[in-house]
Q: What sequence folds into this?
């Protein structure tokens, strides 16, 4: 298995690029990335819930109908 690592100078270059954008633009980019990762994580969790069998759902206090309602929501909706 191979892993990809960032070289220190690549990370610094990316940080300097964001610093050059100014505070407002940098905040917009950071917030946008955080929102996108939140959406991705929510969709991933809903997908995983659908994979659980009824016994496991009961263990955590959920019903199949409740999980299906949750999974039917769009990824951006809480």
A:
């Amino acid at each position: 298995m191979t892993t990809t690592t960032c070289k220190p100078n690549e990370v610094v270059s990316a940080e300097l690029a964001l610093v050059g954008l100014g505070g407002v633009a940098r905040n917009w980019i950071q917030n946008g990335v955080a929102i996108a990762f939140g959406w991705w994580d929510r969709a991933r969790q809903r997908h995983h819930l659908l994979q659980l069998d009824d016994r496991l759902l009961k263990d955590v206090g959920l019903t199949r109908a409740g999980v299906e309602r949750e999974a039917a929501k769009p990824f951006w909706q809480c």
Q: What stands out?
A: Residues 8-71 form one domain. The chain has one domain: 8-71. The mean pLDDT is 82.
